[in-house]
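ok so I'm stuck.
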Amino acid sequence: MIPVLQPASTSMRRTLPGGLPLRVVLGCLLVAWIAAPMVPVLLWSIAGQWRAPAVLPSSYSLQGFADLATADTARAAVSSLSLGLGVAVIATPLGYVGVLAVRALPSLPGRFVEFVLLVPLAIPPFALVMGVNVALLRLYVSPTLGVILVLVVTALPYTAFMFRSALASYDHQFEEVARSLGASPGQAARHVRYPLLASAAARAFFLAFLVGWGDYITTLLIGGGQLRTLPLLLGSAASTTGNEQLTAALSVAIIIPPLILLAGLTLPTARKRRQ
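replied:
not stuck anymore, here's the structure
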């Protein structure tokens, strides 16, 4: 589960700038800053007619969502879901293994491996895809497999960072206690380490899923049109005029599943804290 932020301590609150009213205002502005871009998308998705300079639509309709009920959209949704899950399933354990390798190696080689794990963050996705695309074609790698492999590389820094942060505060004495009570190394890992790293694994899985779920450039260039996902349908709809409602409905369809997944990972922990 994704842990929620701990309440600020009394001493921390004293060091925060401004009084309570200022903090409330800043918090509201932050929420508005995040939510504001979604308002026009939601309005367009249900706008029957919306012509300038009107501030709001003159009529409302759910036709955009009704138009999504097609076999093509369903196949694209399945492809996006499969791509996101495939990337997450591969990148999450790889990130964990990579961080273990960093911790096991001496300082200089460890830093080099850590640098390699973070390199994809410094490379623009378009440049990475254009360099790999030719190699995958020459190796006769299928488009779907090629997209997954490249996106795993893109997701690896996020999963590695999650496990790196978790292992930095991980206390190995728990495993040593389990070993002193007769547990084997495998049993100590299964019953002590993995449960304690479950939150980091959930965060890493979620971030890797987002990389696959929302990708456009890699799927377009390496997929070669054989892999149709929801972002590709969205790009196709947005490239033509008169499809504003369908484009907005597709945007909502792409946004909702990750929000549900995030809520599923976050809310149980928040409920547990209240209990």
